[in-house]
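User: I'm putting together a teaching handout on how multi-component assemblies are represented. Below are the sequence lines for each component of a complex, exactly as they appear in our records. Could you produce the 3D structure of the whole assembly as structure tokens, so the students can see both representations side by side? Please keep the chain order the same as the input.
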Amino acid sequence: MAGLFQRAIDQGGAAVALTIDGEAVQAQQGDLLITAILLHRESLRRFEFGAGSRAGFCLMAACQDCWVRLADGRRLRACSTPVEAGMAVIIEGARPG
Amino acid sequence: MVIVGAGPAGVRCAEALVHAGVRPIVIDEAEQPGGQVYRQPPTGRARRSSAIYGFEAKKAVSIHRAIGDAGARIDYRPGTLVWNVYGDGLDLLTREGSRQQRFDRLVLATGAMDRALPFPGWTLPGVFTLGGAQIALKAQGVAIGRRVALVGAGPLLPLVAHQYANAGVDVVAVLDTTDFAAKRAQLSGLCASAGTLAKGLWYTTRNRLRGLVVRYGVRSLRATGAGRVEALAWREASGEECSVACDAVGASFGLRSEAQLAELAGCRFAFAAAARQWLPEKTPEGRSSVAGVYLAGDGARIGGADVAELQGRRAALAVLEDLGLTVNRGERESLDRALARQARFRRALDAAYPFPGHLLDAVGDDEIVCRCEGVTAAALRQAARDHAAVDINRVKALTRIGMGRCQGRVCGEVAAELLARACGSDLERVGRLRGQPPVKPIPIVASAP
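Assistant: Of course. Below is the structure of the complete assembly, with chains in the same order as your input.
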């Protein structure tokens, strides 16, 4: 699946494995979680208060549009969280709210 | 002695205090110094600074190094959110959990964020702020899309367009929602900071030479797409309707100050007509209305990174004077002269990029005002009409606008603008959203006393 983001400058960090809705994907060391997800997906979560999905907005930890859920129960602001190996991101299966 | 923020203002303030033998605590939400303007790639992903910051590389590196160079003479606490100010204390959220920090003197250097304005499609995945688009490239080496349209009402627009084009991204449109004539009219005032003007002209010229589609006086923006942005439409100054296929939009309309902590610290606010925002009162030296609380940089008033550095240093001198220490008179006077010159530049820049109120005049009833909870302009207008609400805090209580996760950062001033229009009032009279702790979301467990 094509993501929103594209890597314009490949900095060649070590590979980091994570899953998004159960599918294994690769990120790089030094990627923020928002980068790791949006390189592969078009959004971060379904919008809790109406139609559609959200994919973040300000990327500077101000607008709070990029909160995501992990399978282990963690809720993280994706633009200020570095990706970690083994993260299991849930987008489609997440209970809104 | 506590400084909040490790952008250009906070870092220069800390450095000046260290120079005078004071050891400040510098608390910053980010993991590395630089603020948003000189935001660094994560550790281990170093790139040449000139590739990231262009003309500003020297300044960026100097800011990045200042805290490390001071070593133990600064108590630097990265990765720490200040989420409340009370009396002489701060509530902090660190990686380890909740903490408190007492202070005798507090310098707030909390910075700015993009000013967002609603337009149809602005909540679609793929629409980011212009600053967000820049951070993606600067801090992550990624572009927000493959075919990117950029929209702005400030000097960030030609810069981001230049940076994206330089990185090989297909920039399909560069749309300025302010008129070109306004810029030409301010040329002499802009010469007060000739270097900054020259850089702006250089980016603009380079963008033209690359053949980018650059338009001024753009009206009536609309992003469209099924599930994500697929096109951006607009009306040209001539009245012609245009559109372009794209998979991402970077759009924002100037900057706004992040002044929540100043409010919680009890600082008196005043309406700033040029900023169209309520801002904490401050003297040119950086003193707020509260003794022992100082303000520096974009968090108190938008001035840009160079001004933030000057104000950080100037606020440090004010702190030292208030501590009864002697400061170098020559340094103080040269800072004051530089700040006065920069103030002339800023007035001209504000006039060159007037507030694009036409976008707010065009906001339809079904437009989302509050991104966090999806509250529409219709709900705001209904509150104004049915409850005769003329105060923005009344509208907040009735509609929840400003109560979401962002705590009114994105929607607060927009809601005030729309309310003023809805009830035939002016922006100053509808007031401002009252700030509340926590200023950003924190785990419930962290808020326990």
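A couple of points students might notice: Chain B touches chain A through 56 residues (CB under 8 Å). The domain at 2-113+256-327 of chain B is CATH 3.50.50.60 (FAD/NAD(P)-binding domain).
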